[in-house]
Amino acid sequence: MSNPSSTDRGVVTRFAPSPTGFLHIGGARTALFNWLYARHTGGKFLLRVEDTDRERSTEAAVAAIFEGLDWLGLTSDEEPVFQHTRAPRHAEVVQQLLERGRAYRCWMSVEELEVAREKARAEGHAIRSPWRDAPEPGDPALPHVIRFKGPADGETLVDDLVKGPVTFRNTDLDDLVLLRADGAPTYNLAVVVDDHDMGVTHVIRGDDHLNNAARQTLIYQAMDWALPAFAHIPLIHGPDGAKLSKRHGAQAVGEFADMGYIPEGLRNYLARLGWGHGDDEVFNDAQAISWFDVKDVVKAPARLDWAKLNHINSQHLRLADDARLADLVLKALIAQGANLPADAATRLLAVVPQVKEGAKTILELAEHCAFALKIRPFALEEKTTKQLVAETVERLARLRDRLAQTPDWEVEALGSLLKSFAESESVGFGKFGPSLRGILTGGSQAPDLNKIMAALGRDESLGRLDDALAERA
């Protein structure tokens, strides 16, 4: 890979997860901010899997990360880079640092290292190996590491786009290991080499990496490479202000999907965690891309707010395509092992438009759809059967005849018919509405009566009425 000069390169961001577990919600937000900034500037969004730790990296974790990013709609503009495949390039850069006098070989034993670490701590500075300026080199055939030779004094400035200028004393920055004794590259080396070679112009990541930015800056400078812009975003905390953990509920993107949140809802919510555009709370991707600038990210940690997430997700559910929602509900019900009618997909497509407005998640939407998926004949609730006295049964039979004759089976027409029927009977809805609802829904949660019948359709509505009336005949 070649690296364009700082004057002609467009914005290139990257998300670089370590495949040692699931895609955490904090990582998802980092990926989103990188994706939004790349889209906002007309640049590129890249993906790099930082899998140099071969013992802890797993194929399952890689798959989970890719699946989470795909579900969120955050796809890389180029093929993902797997860091472990670039080990020869990392070693090549270390050789260049050795030749420049900016790295050195270190034969310290584990015991010697511990003694040196204690001494450095007592003296108030970072560890410095005695091999840093040794007059005679050690035996290259013996096990050793290669360390970076950082400046002994002065300061390193990280001019962060979120945190502002942050200064580090070079005496506090240790001579970090670049290559381990087995030749494996370390994190800080590999990150710098890969970001440079991938042409990354903006490193947007969690602020737990701020200290690494100083060490990485020194490596960039030692190689005479253009520095990327750093932007370290605050972590996400739980509602109680503590660092997000299992006790706060879902953490993995997959868990949020399983709980019934939809990608656009979660994208909107995550964008609002630490960034915002005035008082705008609910917005689409085009608006987020137009408005987003990483310099507007706040410095303070964001708090996960379930009520706000539910509200934002509900707004996106209302805007979502009905056929897509029906399919998501069907998949959720199948996953739950629900007993479904053969025409469940058709029924869901009819009922979703009538009930989606009140739902916060796909799982809640599935609950709102349950009445339409009951398989005839089904038992009525005791409350409903008690309401079916002779007078009510006779009245419902007359209503059944009116319904069978109406040519218009739409929400508004059905609402007018019910109102007209009540007037013709000289009664209020209370005289037949509750029992009719119980017959049509079996006691499940449902919307207004006219919406219930519109969702069920003519045949199913009349069939459920016939079942109940036949029992009372």
Automatic annotation (TrEMBL):
Q: Cross-referenced Gene3D superfamilies, in alphabetical order?
A: 1.10.10.350, HUPs
Q: What is this protein called?
A: Glutamate--tRNA ligase
Q: What is the recorded function of this protein according to its Swiss-Prot or TrEMBL entry? A: Catalyzes the attachment of glutamate to tRNA(Glu) in a two-step reaction: glutamate is first activated by ATP to form Glu-AMP and then transferred to the acceptor end of tRNA(Glu).
SUPFAM superfamilies per UniProt: An anticodon-binding domain of class I aminoacyl-tRNA synthetases (SSF48163), Nucleotidylyl transferase (SSF52374)
Tell me the protein family, please.
Answer: Belongs to the class-I aminoacyl-tRNA synthetase family. Glutamate--tRNA ligase type 1 subfamily.
Q: Which UniProt keywords apply?
A: Aminoacyl-tRNA synthetase, ATP-binding, Cytoplasm, Ligase, Nucleotide-binding, Protein biosynthesis
Q: Where is the Glutamyl/glutaminyl-tRNA synthetase class Ib catalytic domain?
A: 11-310
Q: Which organism is it from?
A: Caulobacter henricii
Annotated TM spans: none
A Gene Ontology annotation in the biological process aspect, one of them, is:
glutamyl-tRNA aminoacylation
Residues that bind ATP: K246
Subcellular localization, per the record?
Answer: Cytoplasm
| Gene Ontology cellular-component annotations | cytosol
NCBIfam families given for it? gltX_bact
- Return the motif ranges for 'HIGH' region: 17-27
Q: What is the lineage of its organism?
A: Bacteria, Pseudomonadati, Pseudomonadota, Alphaproteobacteria, Caulobacterales
Q: What class of enzyme is it?
A: ligase
